[in-house]
Design goal:
The chain is an all-beta fold and about 325 residues long. The protein has 1 helix and 25 strands.
Length: about 325
């Protein structure tokens, strides 16, 4: 038994991922194929009466794509939930590790997959989320400045060639913090520095999270959120004389951005191309639906402000 072809590292599971093998036997036989990876991934398939075969493993992995990070109470550096490091096992013969992502990525160099400015404002109480790639090791120095001075803490994580999520949780981005500075390196040298000036957050602001075309996580806090509508439906068999539970209940609200610079508006506009969009509330990330994935630019092809209508499940009231 030998593998004759496996997907390249840095491939996307949104594309075809053919795995080919040769039993090296003259007579056909049944082959047990296993796909093993992170998050308890262990899928078994049996191929009947083969000497050579090719199987596309991508359909078994799509449920893992475009998954946001889990936010803990402390700073964390973890493999992206949308990344996978797996092995194929055919009748006890194991392939080399294959690293995959929901978009293709280069496995050389060290770089940011999220879009960031070197210095930017960031709302208090909103986690900082970044997706980064480094070949073997990722080092992150976090310097937090308050009125009492600056404290620094360094973090190191092995990457195994996978895209990594850096998460600074809501509790760290507290009201006492004036700024947070990140120095990001690959164990050899620093390749990125980002400074966040912590600013107040309005009471009706809403933060959305999505994925860019490189697979990196993005976020933006819309300063204005306005209710548009409620929608509630009773379960089948509604009768005014007896209690009937709701079968569904949603709330729609309109989010309005600030008047941002051109580069930031371009980043926001591309949210529409993200397969999934989420609302970030404290350390909780919740999927939402965009009522429309359509925006229009002005007569000069520019976008000065963006307005979105989003829907999510109603969480209050009698059900």
């Amino acid at each position: 038994m030998k593998f004759t072809s496996i997907p390249q590292n840095g491939s996307s599971w949104r594309d075809s991922l053919p795995v080919s093998f040769d039993t090296e036997l003259t007579e056909p036989s049944d082959v047990v194929l296993q796909i093993k990876g992170l998050e308890g991934l262990n899928i078994t398939r049996r191929l009947y009466s083969v000497t050579q075969a090719t199987i596309d493993v991508a359909p078994y992995l799509k449920s893992y794509t475009c998954t946001p990070p889990q936010i803990a109470e402390a700073v964390s550096i973890t493999p992206s939930k949308s990344a996978q490091r797996l092995q194929i096992v055919a009748d006890g013969v194991t392939s080399p590790y294959i690293t995959l992502f929901h978009t293709p990525y280069s496995s050389s160099g060290s770089y940011l997959l999220s879009s960031v400015e070197q210095r930017q404002s960031h709302p208090v109480g909103v986690p900082i989320l970044l997706t980064v790639y480094a070949q073997r090791q990722l080092t992150v120095s976090v310097a937090i400045t308050t009125s009492r001075g600056t404290t620094s803490q360094s973090y190191v994580a092995k990457t195994n060639g996978m895209p990594m999520d850096i998460v600074i949780p809501a509790g760290v981005v507290s009201e006492s913090v004036q700024s947070i500075h990140l120095d990001i390196g690959d164990g050899l040298e620093r390749f990125c520095s980002v400074s966040y000036d912590i600013v107040p957050m309005s009471s009706n602001a809403t933060t959305l999270v999505w994925f860019n075309s490189s697979g990196g996580i993005e976020s933006y806090t819309f300063p204005t959120s306005l209710r548009v509508s409620y929608d509630a439906r009773l379960a089948d068999g509604a009768d005014v004389e007896r209690y009937v539970p709701l079968s569904s209940a949603t709330v729609c609200y309109r989010l309005c951005s600030a008047f941002e610079p051109h580069a930031k508006m371009e980043r926001l506009a591309k949210m529409l191309f993200s397969p999934r969009v989420f609302r970030l509330d404290g350390n909780t990330i919740t999927p939402i639906s965009l009522r429309s994935r359509h925006i229009e630019f002005d007569s000069h092809g520019m976008l000065k402000q963006m307005s979105l209508e989003v829907e999510e499940a109603w969480k209050g009231g009698v059900r």
